[in-house]
Amino acid sequence: MTEFNRPTLPDAIRTNGATPNPWWSNAVVYQIYPRSFQDTNGDGFGDLKGITSRLDYLADLGVDVLWLSPVYKSPQDDNGYDISDYRDIDPLFGTLEDMDELLAEAHKRGLKIVMDLVVNHTSDEHAWFEASKSKDDPHADWYWWRPARPGHEPGTPGAEPNRWGSYFGGSAWEYCPERGEYYFHQFSKKQPDLNWENPAVRHAVYDMMNWWLDRGVDGFRMDVITLISKRTDAEGRLPGEYGSELEDLPVGEEGYSNPNPFCADGPRQDEFLAEMRREVFDGRDGFLTVGEAPGITAKRNEHITDPANGELDMLFLFEHVDFDCEGVKWKPLPLDLPKLKSIMAGYQTAVADAGWASLFTGNHDQPRVVSRWGDDSSEENRVRSAKALGLMLHMHRGTPYVYQGEELGMTDAHFTRLDQYRDLESLNAYRQRVEEAKVQSPESMMAGIAARSRDNARTPMQWDGSAYAGFTAPDAPSEPWIEVNSNHAAINVASEFDDPDSVYAFYKQLIALRHERPIIAAGDWELIDAADEHVYAFTRSLGKERLLVVVNMSGRTVDLPHDTAELVATGVAEPDIIITNYNASHTVVSLANGELDPWEAVVIQL
User: Fold this and answer.
1) Residue 10 CB-half CA count within 13 A
2) What are the residue boundaries of the Glycosyl hydrolase family 13 catalytic domain, all occurrences included (predicted)?
3) What is the SS3 assignment for 412-465?
4) How far apart are CA 350 and CA 304, in angstroms?
């Protein structure tokens, strides 16, 4: 593991309750989606050598940690989140030697590497699952196998063990003729859930994690790690199974019930995470663990991330990116700013005494935030809103995560045809909701996919204005695996890198402020003017120092809300402006007039 070479917070400043302060308290993490980052061999897919070639760019940006989405060997059914061999690199991305080179070169630059860990499920092509198809094999109960429902012929409709649906559409059960039973998969049918109740499964996972840490990786981002403990009755039966004492939820509009309440944050969640900490991380220094945490409340986040409980360093919570829709993600709604503020306040206050927060608005599963909550209809609005949204997020207490291209203000793909999409979830959802269940019209569903598809975040990184945005050579033998965004000629690294007014330059400032000012990383947080529908305002305080953060989250000029106006009533001078997405003189005038211009965002020293 590399030595951390950024300024760290003094131990006199309390962060998450650990002593001494963890190195990541004022760090910034950058997520790389490898297949879309940089292609060096012209096959249309990004690769490990491509990431290595761009390390100087990432070091210049100022980030501290690189999180790689999965690069393990995989059939790529779900873009690598279906792993067939945890101890090898998929040829799509390169070799183990390429991974070793990336680790070495990143560490030379003081950058840490965190790998995606996908252990709620494997690929159905993993050797463990192949062996599990035999009831006589030692791996027979490494997955969730169940017989057909009594009175039904195995493999026929209605014979599934219960009515659970997959999050990717269709039944969550797949019949396996070789074994004569069904296996459970919360996601794709090629992603069978591992049975964490079996200690052999857990220790095989821990052995693999130790193998990677010994090889030099600096930690793990743990995919849907809060789905590993399932609720069963006293006889080990799942809800809705024949004879189960646990009642299932009602069937929904697509014809299936929801397994999430019975799989998220299950009864042994804390036990499993604490065991992992002991078996893998005890005795090691310099690592980072962050868990993707569907179904976890802010209060539970406090417990899991409290260092006294020995589980994880931080979690990704999802309420703030799940609420702006009408029941399902494919029916998006406009941003309800007071609701967003309430959710974020819940996150912040839950870890005021112990634990830690992760800060994100984008990742490989979310649409581009500038298209979602900002305004990409014009260049001026795109730049202003991208900066405003970045400032809003980075001024919270916690660890910020930047998703590749976010620092450029990259936008949604704006695809118009279904054949332009590659995302398994989107394509399955269209088939399930439009063609099979007929619960959404084609036009409405296409609009929903355009706004929420995971492919919005997966178009190639925009390095320059050439034919394929510099992701791959203009004369490469293969086109990129997914279309390059049509606006890449205007939005790219080459055009922003040396532009002091660019989104990229603004993100560099935000990242530097977190390194330089302990109040931003660890100061107390307090929401003000919670009910205002346009302005997001809060204070940060540490000792005698106090900051005011004010963001106009709309595309029109708005009045400062009451409490915010009171805080600046005595006047703000240019030296009081820590950062603004306009310029200091402009923002001083705005504040003096008791208003903010469209997307105006500022941090003020009080």
Assistant:
1) 8
2) 31-458
3) CCCCCCHHHCCCHHHHHHHHHHHHHCCCCCHHHHHHHHHHHCHHHHCCCCCCCC
4) 12
In angstroms, the CA 357 to CA 377 distance is: 32
Residue 104 sits at φ, ψ, to 5 deg, of -65, -45
Backbone angles phi, psi at 29, to 5 degrees: -105, 140
Strands (E), 259-303: 288-292
**Average pLDDT, 10 consecutive residues per value, the chain (606 residues):** 70 87 95 98 98 98 97 96 98 98 97 97 98 98 97 95 95 97 97 98 98 98 98 96 96 94 97 98 96 95 97 97 93 97 97 96 97 97 98 98 98 96 93 93 95 96 97 96 97 97 98 96 97 98 97 98 95 96 96 97 98
To which H or E segment does residue 96 belong? Answer: helix 96-108
The DSSP element (H or E) to which 562 belongs, if any, is helix 562-567
Catalytic annotation, residues: 223, 292
Q: What is the Cα 148 distance to its own chain's centre?
A: 36
State the amino acid at position 95 in one-letter form: T
Distances in whole angstroms, Cα of residue 604 to Cα of each of 190, 587, 601: 51, 10, 10
Which of helix, strand or coil describes residue 545? strand
Question: Looking up tokens 């490494």, which residue turns up?
Answer: 142
With 0.90 as the threshold, say if the pTM is over it.
yes
CB 360 within 8 A of CB 316: yes
Q: Which two tokens stand for residue 528?
A: 């003000």
Using an 8 Å Cβ cutoff, are 535 and 552 in contact? yes
Q: How far is CA 329 from CA 339, 425, 431, 433, 583, in A?
A: 17, 11, 15, 12, 37
By residue count, the chain amounts to: 606
Distance CA 429, CA 167 (A): 9
Q: Are 193 and 184 in contact (CB under 8 A)?
A: yes
> Closest Cα to residue 349, out of 530, 507, 510, 515?
530
Q: What distance in Å separates the CA atoms of residue 262 and residue 153, rounded to the nearest whole number?
A: 26
Backbone angles phi and psi of 342, in degrees to 5: -65, -40
User: Vertex 342, ends 338 and 347: CA angle to 5°?
Assistant: 150
State the Cα–Cα distance between residues 536 and 340, nearest whole angstrom: 9
Contact criterion met (CB below 8 Å) for 179 and 145: yes
d(CA 313, CA 563): 34
Name the nearest CA neighbour of 255 among 171, 363, 157, 168. 171
Between CA 369 and CA 446 the distance in angstroms is 19
Helix (H) or strand (E) holding 332: strand 328-332
E strands within 209-287?
219-222
Host H or E run for residue 300: helix 298-305
Cis before 20? omega within 30: yes
Angle value at C-alpha 63, between 57 and 64, nearest 5 degrees: 120
Residue 463: name the closest of 13, 58, 8 by CA: 58
